[in-house]
Specification:
By secondary structure, the chain is an alpha/beta fold. Helices cover 35% and strands 22% of the residues. The chain has a single domain, classed as Alpha-Beta Barrel (TIM Barrel). It has 16 helices and 21 strands. β19 and β20 form a beta hairpin. The structure holds N-(aminocarbonyl)-beta-alanine and zinc ion (2 copies). The site of N-(aminocarbonyl)-beta-alanine (URP) has 8 residues, from loops.
């Protein structure tokens, strides 16, 4: 049985047109004016609404074991919460322990993700290096649809990748036609600052941002970008929060490098005053890395999005409940890092981006789905509204309003970083694989209905990049030749 979305305005990355959308067997069959619903097809009234690609959140952590505990949101509850906010696909992270085979971790995460209600894919983290990592990266790219590898430059004594790991892994990414991604914070500096702050008796959440100042992020972003430049590989910087990191991205782009930047909804809208909240629980609930920054960084991030220096929006959805956060009651370095947001990303970006005139609707689509689909090589299957694409759609009512609250959310956590925010512009229907999975505030998510999405490597693009590097690299001049 098909489904026809009638009477809406289709908004994609590059156009806005009055059109109906007909979907059958999980894919879009037709986009056009006045499509007659075939017998038996379900009809969705999209009058007064926009019909857009379902959101892609390229940075989530469902049921992640991290900092001595496990996130509260699993792949089912997390993807269902995503549906409530118009997001129909996530790219989560497989994070092997140091010395764990990448393939073993990939299999473990694949098992956990079988319960997902929506489509998903995986970035795989490179947390250590030996010849098995080299081999497993090849297997993941060639046989398991992985085209991106993650590097944590922070979290010393846990999953931090040092320069040797970065250089080895970036080199391997280039060979494979995969994109390296980085969490850019100088883990050595963070560690040193944490020890200094604790020694001064600063043990509360207010010390968290002091241990991770913007320079720490700027240095690591710059280092990752320069390493990528020397090796000639594109690079994607996750959760850019500081002007210093954005500046490093712009410098790389200005020098002809292919550098992509991701920004979190939270970093665009929340400032570092949250860490000085008198209630310890509230302050600790906001502990994430990189931390929320002072307001001038938010303005810089918005400008980065508007100028096209930053390309995707994500959430880093990584939920820990109050009891878990309390593990760091006496020592802020033990507060599990992470906040939630998958349910609110699209609506807060619409409200503060489109409604304020900072973003056009087409830019909104680029930033919530199309760019992620292109960068991670699943476009136009995802991130578009056209015949042949997956029927992952959101019907968006620009007039609908709500006040965001943990009391009414689906996210499995007791707080919301956007608590009390009044927003206008909400999903009324979310459609995944041609099926309504969230309707008028009611979840119809089905456990296990989500599919793993293969993301092919980009060998031809990378060959071209490698060739250009080869051509532009200065030819070595031997001393004997120089003397002639
Ligand atoms: O604080 C965060 N961001 N927690 C999740 C792990 C990461 O760094 O992305
Ligand atoms: Zn991170
Ligand atoms: Zn993350």
């Amino acid at each position: 049985m098909g489904i026809v979305i009638k009477g809406g305005t289709v908004v994609t990355a590059d156009r806005t047109i009055r059109a109906d959308v007909y979907c059958e067997e999980g894919v879009i069959k037709a986009v056009g004016e006045d499509i007659d619903a075939p017998a038996g097809a379900e009809v969705v009234d999209a009058g007064g609404c926009y019909v857009m690609p379902g959101g892609i959140d390229p940075h989530t952590h469902m049921e992640l074991p991290f900092m001595g505990t496990v996130t509260t949101e699993d792949f089912f509850s997390g993807t269902a919460a995503g549906f409530a906010g118009g997001t129909t696909m996530i790219i989560d992270f497989v994070i092997p322990n140091p010395k764990q085979r990448l393939m073993d971790a990939f299999k473990t995460w694949s098992g956990w993700a079988e319960k997902a209600a929506g489509d998903y894919s995986f970035h795989v983290a490179v947390t250590w290096w030996d010849e098995t990592v080299h081999a497993d990266m090849g297997t993941l790219v060639e046989s398991h649809g992985v085209n991106s590898f993650k590097h944590f430059m922070a979290y010393k004594n846990a999953i931090m990748a040092d320069d040797e790991v970065l250089v080895n892994s970036f080199t391997r990414c280039l060979e494979l036609g995969a994109i390296p991604t980085v969490h850019a914070e100088n883990g050595e500096l963070v560690f040193r600052l944490q020890q200094q702050l604790l020694a001064q008796g600063l043990t509360g959440p207010e010390a968290h941002p002091l241990s991770r100042p913007p320079e720490v992020e700027g240095e690591a972003a710059n280092r990752a970008i320069q390493v990528a430049k020397v090796l000639g590989v594109p690079v994607y910087i996750v959760h850019v929060s500081a002007k210093e990191a954005l500046d490093a991205i712009i410098r790389g782009q200005d020098s002809g490098q292919r550098v992509f930047g991701e920004v979190l909804a939270g970093h665009l809208l929340i400032d570092d005053s949250v860490y000085r909240h008198p209630d310890w629980e509230v302050a600790a609930a906001h502990v994430m890395s990189p931390p929320f920054r002072s307001k001038e960084h938010q303005e810089a991030l918005w400008r980065g999005l508007q100028a096209g220096h930053l390309h995707t929006t994500a959430t880093d959805h990584c939920c820990f409940c109050a009891e878990q956060k309390a593990m760091g009651r006496d020592d802020f370095t033990k507060i599990p890092n992470g906040t939630a947001g998958i349910e609110d990303r699209m609506t807060v970006l619409w409200h503060h981006g489109v409604n304020t005139g900072r973003l056009t609707m087409n830019e909104f689509v680029r930033l919530t789905s199309a760019n992620a689909a292109q960068i991670f090589n699943i476009y136009p299957r995802k991130g578009s509204v056209e015949a042949g694409a997956d029927a992952d759609l959101v019907v968006w009512d620009p007039k609908a309003t709500k006040t965001i609250s943990a009391k009414t959310q689906m996210q499995k956590v007791g707080y919301n970083i956007f608590e009390g925010m009044e927003v206008q512009g909400l999903p009324v229907y979310t459609i995944s694989q041609g099926r309504i999975v969230h309707a008028l505030g009611e979840s119809r998510a089905v456990r296990g209905a989500g599919r793993y999405v293969n993301r092919p490597a980009f060998p031809s693009v990378y060959e071209a990049v490698a060739k250009r590097n080869e051509l532009s690299r200065p030819k070595p001049v031997l001393r004997s030749a120089a003397a002639e």
